[in-house]
Amino acid sequence: MSEKDALIQPDRGQKAIAIHLVDKGGLDEFRKGLNGVQRAALDAHRFAADGYDYAIMPDGEGWAVVSGVADAANLSSWCMAKLAENLPAGTYRRVGGEPGAALFGWITGQYRFERYLSQPAEEGPRVLLTGEVKAIETIAAEAEATLLVRDLVNTPAEDMGPAQIEAEAESLHKEFRTEIRVTRGDTLEHEYPMVHAVGRAASRAHAPRMVELEWGDPRHPRIAVVGKGVCFDSGGLDIKPGSGMLLMKKDMGGAAHALALARLIMQARLPVRLHLLIPTVENAIAGNAFRPGDILRSRAGISVEIGNTDAEGRLILGDALARAGEGKPELVIDFATLTGAARVALGPDLPALFTRDAATADALLAAGEACDDPCWRLPLHDGYREYLKSDIADINNAGTGGFAGSCTAALFLDRFVPKGIAWAHFDTFAWRPAAKPGRSKGGAALGLRAAWHMLRARYGETS
Question: Record keywords: Zinc-finger included (predicted)?
Answer without folding.
Answer: no
